[in-house]
Design brief:
Radius of gyration: 23 Å
Oligomer: single chain
GO molecular function: alpha,alpha-trehalose-phosphate synthase (UDP-forming) activity; trehalose-phosphatase activity
Bound molecules: 6-O-phosphono-beta-D-fructofuranose
Strand content: 15-25%
Largest sheet: 10 strands, mixed
Number of domains: 2
Organism: Baekduia soli
CATH architecture of the largest domain: 3-Layer(aba) Sandwich
InterPro entries: Glyco_trans_20 (IPR001830)
GO cellular component, one term: cytosol
Protein name: Trehalose-6-phosphate synthase
CATH superfamily of the largest domain: Glycogen Phosphorylase B
Structural class: alpha/beta
Strand order of the largest sheet: 5-6-4-1-7-8-9-12-11-10
Length: 486
């Protein structure tokens, strides 16, 4: 088999671009889009995604269910947008995928605080999640018509039931599914009704390969298959699940960042201008966090720890600023809207408690602006990444890549990035507020030699692989497995 000759089909909920009302487009946001953009601009692929905005829906209708070419700054893409019924999409995105699956896969719900699962949630699965999966599966099947043994790469937690639908229509397709978020242990999954759970796992097991960011998510997935399903055989050593006479390979492929792209951004004129603005207002030390305003990111505990640090080390008063750039996200989900309110409230409390007439300890910026984040990346002394759970966390890689002050990373042991970078960061338990506060102090008082050693160690690991390697590792496994079965 030579999959290079076959056009690759990518499918994800969020696509590479979103269209505005004026017909113009902007780049999609988030780790998944960043990772796949590299692939889509370097290989012949068709990227199928949901229509997310009115502008996307108009584009989907205009293109009449076919793919079209997009010429963007970072490459050209062949894109196909799929419009779903708005009510079904709302159930899919705002009730089932987020919060239900997202919460389960970040331990935001466990058995003690799980929501009541009622008709509303089950219907959101049946008439929301599955409808969007069916719509996208139909587009995939149309796109691979006439191609022998096509390769389809499915992405993330939005599309767990899609592979079974494609498999049914095209038993010869090679289905590769990458999950960008953590895979939690079996008990976390018991929140889901049994029928829904089974459909999700059987949907996923229709793939040939399932990929995760880390070995521990891979391990958790294998454990879940063993404990939650009764018709599978799991080989932990080989990372194989046998289901319905087929073998599913379960693998770990940690996602790297595109170092060249982030360095390019770091040298842009706008970043330069934003940096000058930042430096004008700079105190002696800068602590930084950049995140989506998501419960899994543990933003509140980060501020509580900073509060404690200032209380225990008053000598830092007026000498340090904590810049928190948070991008509002999924604001139609009540839990997220409420979280934003709690963030604003705690910032007000900490600023009131420690601030002085000419010093505001925490600067909260609620915005999505990569260049502004990069300007701050270049100048931080401490980068705080204290997520409760996080699939990978690309901020932990982007920051050290462009930082120019040998800044210290404080990194949660529960991020995927920790498996690679933990050794050179200050590793923290994200629930331990005292440890977080102590780490802020340790980072701010660390000697220059130690800062340099850690910063250089981080950069060496971060640059050791790039997104091209990530794709090549997956393609190599696709080849190997297809060869074995051929
Ligand atoms: O894998 C998680 C992810 O899909 C990332 O790409 C991104 O960080 C985030 O979730 C985006 O979420 P949404 O598409 O809901 O904005």
């Amino acid at each position: 088999m030579s999959e290079e000759r076959r056009p690759l089909v990518l499918v994800s909920n969020r696509g590479p671009v979103t269209f505005g009302d004026d017909g113009g487009f902007k780049r999609g946001t988030g780790g998944l889009v960043t990772a796949l953009t590299g692939l889509a601009s370097h290989r012949e692929v068709v990227w199928i995604a949901s229509a997310l905005t009115d502008g996307d829906a108009r584009k989907a209708r205009e293109s009449d269910g076919t793919s079209f070419r997009i010429e963007a700054d970072d490459g050209d893409f062949q894109v196909r947008l799929v419009e779903s019924d708005p009510e079904a999409y709302d159930r899919f995105y705002n009730i089932f995928a987020n919060p239900m699956l997202w919460f389960i896969q970040h331990y935001l719900w466990d058995l003690s605080n799980a929501p009541d699962v009622r008709r509303n949630e089950i219907e959101a699965f049946e008439f929301g999640y599955n409808v969007v999966n069916e719509d996208l599966a139909k587009a995939v099947v149309e796109e691979i018509e006439g191609i022998d043994e096509p390769v389809v790469m499915v992405h993330d937690y939005h599309l767990y039931t899609l592979p079974a639908l494609v498999r049914r229509a095209r038993p010869d397709a090679f289905l590769h599914h990458f999950v960008h978020i953590p895979w939690t242990q079996p008990d976390a999954w018991r929140v889901l009704p049994r029928g829904v759970r089974r459909e999700i796992y059987e949907g996923l097991l229709a793939n040939d390969i399932i990929g995760f960011h880390t070995r521990s998510y891979r391990w958790n997935f294998l454990q879940c298959c063993r404990d939650l399903l009764d018709n599978v055989e799991v080989d932990f050593e080989a990372g194989i699940v046998r289901f319905e006479d087929r073998e599913v390979w379960v693998r770990a492929y940690p996602l790297p960042i595109d170092a060249k792209a982030i360095r390019r951004t770091a040298q842009s004129a706008r970043v330069d201008e934003l940096e000058r603005e930042l430096l004008r207002r700079r105190r002696e030390h800068l602590v930084l966090r950049v995140d989506r305003a998501d419960l899994s990111k543990n933003v509140l505990r980060g501020f509580t720890a900073f509060d404690l640090f200032l209380e225990q080390h008053p000598e830092f008063s007026e000498r340090v600023t904590f810049v928190a750039q948070l991008m509002p996200s999924r604001t139609d989900v009540p839990e997220y809207a409420e979280y934003l309110e709690r963030i604003e409230a705690i910032v007000a409390v900490v600023n009131h408690r420690h601030g002085t007439p000419d010093w505001m300890p925490i600067q909260l910026k609620l915005k999505d602006d990569l260049e502004e984040a990069v300007a701050a990346y270049k100048n931080y002394d401490v980068l705080l990444v204290n997520a409760m759970f996080d699939g990978m966390n690309l901020v932990a890689k982007e920051g050290p890549m462009v930082n120019e002050r040998h800044g210290v990373s404080i990194l949660s042991e529960n991020t995927g990035a920790h498996e690679e970078l933990g050794e050179f960061a200050l590793s923290v338990n994200p629930f331990d507020i005292q440890e977080l506060a102590d780490s802020i102090h340790a980072a701010l008082t660390m000697g220059p030699g130690e800062r340099a050693r850690r910063a250089e160690g981080l950069q060496a690991i971060i640059t050791s692989r790039d997104p091209g390697d990530w794709i090549d590792e997956q393609i190599a496994d696709i080849r190997k497995k297809a060869g074995v079965e051929a």
